[in-house]
Amino acid sequence: MGIWVSAARRRGITMKLQSQLNLAFTALLLVILTVTGYVIYSMIMGMLIDNEKTELKQKGELLVQVINEQYRAQGSIEDFSDFLEDQELQLFLYDRVQNQVLMSTMPEQFVRGFSVNDYFADNQEELWEAGNSKFVTSRILLYPEQTGLELILLTPLTDLQTVQQDFFRRLIIVFIVGAMATVLLSYLLTNKLVTPLTKLKKQLKKIENRKFDEVERVKATGEIKEVEQSVYDMAKELERFMKSQRTFFQNASHELKTPLMTIQGYAEGIRDNVFDEKDKEKGLEMMVTEVNRLKTIINEMILLAKLDSEQTEYQPVQINVSELINQVLDRTLPLVGEKEVRLNHSIDQESVIFADQEKLLRALLNVTFNAIRHAHSRVDITVEGATIVIEDDGEGISKDLIPHIFHRFVKGKTGETGLGLAIARAIVEQSGGKIMVRDSDLGGAKFVIVFPE
């Protein structure tokens, strides 16, 4: 029951996100359509009026041309009045000189209304109003202009409003169809967006339950793909960390248990008087040796824990690498003599890096001691710029061990605690550098330490 409730809750969250995205797209669409519709509705009337004025002007000029060609020679207005009335147009014949309407095809009430508002004498007014009616007008002078005769054509604004409303209705239909298509497209896109997130959430649940082997890749694009890649990498890194932790505790328990069992065995033998005097002395020496070994392991474990958790442990300063390598050579001299190994060095005297000098010296000593212990006859230290290379002519590192060589308690045949290289890596990485292991041309292992320039 609890699983079903949890699944229903997850679906609810997903649907909520999808609904929010759809609502946002729809709201944005409505705002855009509303603004667009208002702008178009406002502009269309002006366009219709301008278009109608152009048509009226063309009609008026055509009428004036006919009048001047056929009726002007007869010299009487009555001669072409019948012609104008037959055109089924709303028009006036107006005398500018006498400020008088000579003829009209419109009812008398409009003549009085226009006269009261002084529209005939006002040449600038293009939209005439009488009562509740408005008209678009166009004025054309008859030839010759000295006569002052003017032809005024009118079109009711209601005719244009009918065209405007019809156009707007069609526009609304187009908007509705477009809105439906956009909402459908929005649903498909949001569904495509949310589905990978839903699958990604399931993978995160597997990571939460530490089911790393069941984590699957999720198909996605864009930023979600980057998030998916990060989640997948995180899962692999967590899996590696968990395995390394298990290995660490297994190795740590083994490393600590062995000297403790040795100490316990000798201590019980001495207590029970199992050993003679000579064996007692040997046992005591062995107990001291194992105690020192335990002390070394514990100190290195404490140091490694501090390096991993306390950034304040680092005090970076500018270091002359040449001086640092000289300190390494001085401290490794006894072991070099004991192992009869030749320690070569080639140092760029101008090399400078920024790190904690004391801890970096510890890291370099760990790597160099490791190389000396495994070398047959030769160890080379090379410094070029911010890169330090330490390599030997020993047997090298086995392929299966290379990926784990910097993990805790991982050591080769002649290794001591298995913590030296782990400490070296922690110090180098906290100093902003990187340490890598490769096969050396000398035949053994090659450790490359690179710091930022």
TrEMBL record:
GO terms for molecular function: ATP binding; phosphorelay sensor kinase activity. PROSITE patterns: HAMP, HIS_KIN. It holds the Pfam family HATPase_c. It is an enzyme of class 2 (transferase). The keyword Glycoprotein does not apply. GO terms for cellular component: plasma membrane. It is found in: Cell membrane. InterPro entries: HAMP_dom, HATPase_C_sf, HATPase_dom, His_kinase_dom, HisK_dim/P_dom, HisK_dim/P_sf, HssS/ArlS-like, Sig_transdc_His_kin-like_C. Residues 191-243 form the HAMP domain. Its EC number is 2.7.13.3. CDD domains: HATPase, HisKA. Keywords: ATP-binding, Cell membrane, Kinase, Membrane, Nucleotide-binding, Phosphoprotein, Transferase, Transmembrane, Transmembrane helix, Two-component regulatory system. Residues 251-453 form the Histidine kinase domain. SUPFAM superfamilies: ATPase domain of HSP90 chaperone/DNA topoisomerase II/histidine kinase, Homodimeric domain of signal transducing histidine kinase. The chain crosses the membrane at residues 21-41, 167-189. It catalyses: ATP + protein L-histidine = ADP + protein N-phospho-L-histidine. It is a multi-pass membrane protein. This is histidine kinase. It comes from Lentibacillus halodurans. The lineage of its organism: Bacteria, Bacillati, Bacillota, Bacilli, Bacillales.
